[in-house]
Design goal:
By secondary structure, the chain is α/β, with parallel strands linked by helices. The protein has 16 helices and 13 strands.
Length: 548
């Protein structure tokens, strides 16, 4: 099972379109990571010829308020085959333009219901030197590409000026996510607390009942969309939009889960790619137990790197400097096991009023994604040990009733359950997975996104329609993979595994020797090497290892 957390290195990139229209960035543990606690994927080859029918769809400027609603019938027969850009709503910077585009709900039966895709564009600053469209996906599943591009527009110095000059940067929200027709579910059903590590038959039955009730509420509010949010459908959506934007060869930057999305795009549409970068690689071909072992091990290894960094830092850099940081983590965990730790800054509206040991183990994985968040993680552990787990809880988001914001959580679950194996059918199956984690990752006891997906999807009503399999890529364009050695979410092992699937003739693996999830938005030597590829088609030498 390949998987991915989602967001790249700098949490300041992500904007929220929730009620207050504020940024995700604040002084908590990288609050951009709050909305991601589940997800994963799976694969199946579909016929590319049906994509031609996307030219029967209509494109209109994005309405001033929000998203296109679920659409049926006549709109699928509109004769427009191009996208017209218009102004965005005020949740986005004025430098962006926005559009919607209508595609079939079911690509195998494209004459029935349709959905809307929402996308944003940061136009090339030098139109005369424009190379083409650069599609970005921040990961997830469930990550909003529109938020990423909005963040880049707000902080353009994050990208090389040459990238901004030569490319239209496109943020297409995958179906079910953000500006696209969103997955909507009952918020109370999602927010109900349940144990994902059941120890008794009653706890297991409660978990399965929770999953079923949530899935049924998603069907009630989202209709048949729930059956068609798999990654292959999203791949076909991207191809339809590529064609509608002028049929140019595409440039792709996939971060985390975005590497699954765009590697599957490469498999289905190998001849339509100019450049493709897969950063923080997800291998969509491993078994359930292998994924648990691989991901929990990389999470635990990165957690130990955090302990080492903090111990050796100054007190200004890390509040726990000079102490036994692992012992502090264990103290917090032991206290949460004994009784949930209060989170007085949360009121069970946007975050829970206390934190369990499960909450702690799942949430800290997201807090390790960006090394810039490590100082805040140390503060959070220190406060939790003193009895206040607010900072931990604030990074374990609840659904709040806003369709755009909640879609990250809700679509993430729905996509994962259609993409990744979840074959457990009994308490014994789940306990065995917990034993695997406890034995090989004793600090976190196997809590990780792969585990959450496998247990969240037991009893999910939608089919597993994109099951794990190896990528078979036959294109002429060489794929550039970027992978850090201590990535808490997408393991170096997955990077090596996907590289082996693609083969030395089809891909180059660029390694960053360092910690953190994904590399491109860090701005170091790895970023510079990737930019050379985007701009000049120049690839690094095979075997290149960089330290930034």
């Amino acid at each position: 099972m390949g998987r991915a957390y989602i967001y790249p290195e700098d949490p300041a990139l992500f904007i929220s379109s929730s009620h207050h229209n504020t940024t995700f960035h604040d002084n908590t543990i990288g609050s951009v990571l709050r909305r991601i606690n589940n997800k994963m994927g799976r694969t199946q080859v579909l016929v590319s010829a049906v994509l031609a029918l996307a030219t029967l769809s209509v494109a209109v400027p994005l309405p001033g308020s929000r998203i296109g609603s679920f659409r049926r019938g006549a709109l699928a027969h509109n004769t427009s085959s191009s996208i017209t850009w218009g102004p965005c709503s005020d949740q986005f910077p004025s430098s962006l333009t926005c559009a919607t585009y209508t595609v079939p709900l079911d690509w195998s039966n494209p004459c029935n219901e349709t959905i809307e895709l929402g996308l944003v564009r940061l136009a090339a600053s030098d139109e005369s030197a424009r190379i083409g469209n650069l599609f970005v996906n921040p990961g997830g599943p469930g990550g909003q590409a529109s938020s990423l591009v909005g963040g880049l527009a707000r902080s353009p110095d994050i990208l090389d000026p040459q990238i901004l000059a030569h490319f239209d940067i496109i943020g297409l929200d995958p179906r079910g996510v953000g500006l696209s027709t969103p997955v909507q579910c009952d918020t109370a059903a999602f927010n109900k607390r349940v144990s994902f590590f059941p120890k008794t038959q009653a706890e297991y039955d409660e978990l399965v009942a929770y999953n079923k009730a949530l899935g049924e509420s998603c069907y009630a509010k989202s209709g048949r969309l729930i059956d068609f949010v798999d990654t292959i459908s999203a791949v076909k959506d991207h191809e339809a939009v590529r064609k509608a934007l002028g049929d140019e060869k595409i440039n792709l930057l996939g971060l985390s889960y975005g590497t699954q999305l765009f590697s599957q795009y490469a498999e289905l549409f190998p001849d339509n790619i100019r450049t493709i970068v897969l950063d923080g690689n997800l291998q969509h071909s491993q078994s359930e137990s292998s994924n648990l072992l691989i991901e929990s091990a990389t999470y635990e290894a990165t957690l130990k790197k955090f302990f080492e960094w903090c111990t050796n830092s100054t007190s200004e850099e890390c509040t726990l400097s000079g102490s036994d940081v692992q012992a502090k983590y264990q103290s917090v965990l032991d206290k949460a096991i004994a009784a949930p730790i209060p989170a007085p800054g949360c009121d069970n509206t946007s975050c829970r009023s206390d934190v369990t040991d499960e909450d702690l183990r799942f949430t800290i994985q997201g807090s390790l994604i960006s090394t810039s968040n490590w100082p805040a993680l140390a503060v959070a552990l220190s406060q939790a040990d003193a009895g206040n787990a607010t900072l931990i809880s604030q990074n374990n988001a609840l659904a709040v009733g806003d369709a755009y914001a909640d879609s990250t959580l809700l679509a993430g679950t729905a996509i994962a359950c259609q993409d990744w194996d979840h074959a457990s059918t009994s308490l014994a199956d789940v306990v065995a997975k917990g034993t695997l984690g406890a034995n090989f990752s004793p600090l976190t006891r196997g809590a990780c996104q792969s585990y959450k997906i496998q247990t969240s999807c037991i009893g999910w009503p939608a089919p597993l329609s994109n099951p794990p399999k190896k990528i078979v890529y036959k294109g002429e364009t060489t794929i550039l993979q970027a992978q850090s050695t201590f990535d808490p979410s997408t393991s170096y092992a997955w990077g090596l595994g996907l590289h082996a699937e693609l083969g030395d003739e089809k891909s180059v693996l660029l390694v960053r020797d360092g910690a953190g999830h994904t590399s491109y938005l860090r701005g170091g030597a790895t970023t510079a090497a990737i930019n050379e590829y985007f701009l000049n088609l120049t690839l690094p030498e095979p075997g290149t290892v960089l330290d930034s």
